[in-house]
Amino acid sequence: xxxxxxxxxxxxxxxxxxxxxxxxxxxxxxxxxxxxxxxxxxxxxxxxxxxxxxxxxxxxxxxxxxxxxxxxxxxxxxxxxxxxxxxxxxxxxxxxxxxxxxxxxxxxxxxxxxxxxxxxxxxxxxxxxxxxxxxxxxxxxxxxxxxxxxxxxxxxxxxxxxxxxxxxxxxxxxxxxxxxxxxxxxxxxxxxxxxxxxxxxxxxxxxxxxxxxxxxxxxxxxxxxxxxxxxxxxxxxxxxxxxxxxxxxxxxxxxxxxxxxxxxxxxxxxxxxxxxxxxxxxxxxxxxxxxxxxxxxxxxxxxxxxxxxxxxxxxxxxxxxxxxxxxxxxxxxxxxxxxxxxxxxx
Length: 346
Ligand code: SAH
Hints:
Blueprint: E1 4-5, H1 11-20, H2 25-36, H3 51-60, E2 61-62, E3 67-73, E4 79-84, E5 90-98, E6 101-105, E7 109-111, E8 126-129, H4 132-146, E9 150-155, H5 165-175, E10 188-192, H6 196-203, E11 210-214, H7 220-226, H8 229-232, H9 235-249, E12 253-259, H10 267-277, E13 282-288, H11 302-314, E14 319-321, H12 335-345
Parallel strand pairs: 1-2, 6-9, 9-10, 10-11, 11-12, 12-13, 13-14
Antiparallel strand pairs: 3-4, 4-5, 5-6, 7-8
Helix pairs in contact: 1-2, 4-5, 6-9, 10-11
Bound molecules: S-adenosyl-L-homocysteine.
């Protein structure tokens, strides 16, 4: 028998499910609060529910939980978790401390199918997609462990969020619900490698989140050499989708640009990039690439990154160099999971 994954249900879905078990709607609303406001991990903690009902529920449904397989704390306060899922798979989440609050970077899939040539997360391909409840559990487990409120979320961990569209949308509805942890959409960023049809779909959802696009190159030749997804959705289609997204939502779009020495960090690239994004309300985030094992790329040096930024600004663009947190605890996303896999393979 398939267990119902309780933490993955939105409030209306949970209420309907609890009613299908012969219980009144208010019990569904109470259980939703237990799961998402109080974040219990066991049915026995739902103290206002009849015992017999909880027994019946626990025979049909599970609360999605994670265990901490490994944890690293950086000198700057960044905490990186390797979480183990009940099926044995591992994912990563990172909590970063900013002046405006704690931000968590969550994974949306185990592995990734996108194949970006600089990214550790994709090296073993896609294993499976996470449920909405498993993504919630990353936030809840990290918040509990850190012992402070998490107020911001970036979907920039392992996986491609728009490749797991329905579960990610349910996650967003649950995590922003005011009967749960209540993290507002304004405090959430979703990062995509550029799945054009899904960007168009997301534009229709009316969510106030920030869309972040991993661009990394200003033309097709370069981008296809770094990101196979560009063969399916070339730069001009991606940028057109971004412009349409902006028109529909009125939101500024963030573009990630990982700088690779001698590849995409030339003055000509900066000019092409500025030209490509002209007229759009955009913010360009420059990140020196984090070299991963098995990749031929190395990071642009600090002067090059700064010159690139200054050139963009001189061309009227809004660009910053991303502050790097947690560099002493290894890493670009996906690296901890790769390390742990390596150890268990030996
Ligand atoms: N799949 C989504 C989200 C996960 S990756 C996406 O592609 O946007 C989060 C960000 O980290 C992306 O911008 C990705 O391109 C970037 N990234 C991946 N590996 C990196 C590396 N080695 N160095 C710097 N940035 C990297």
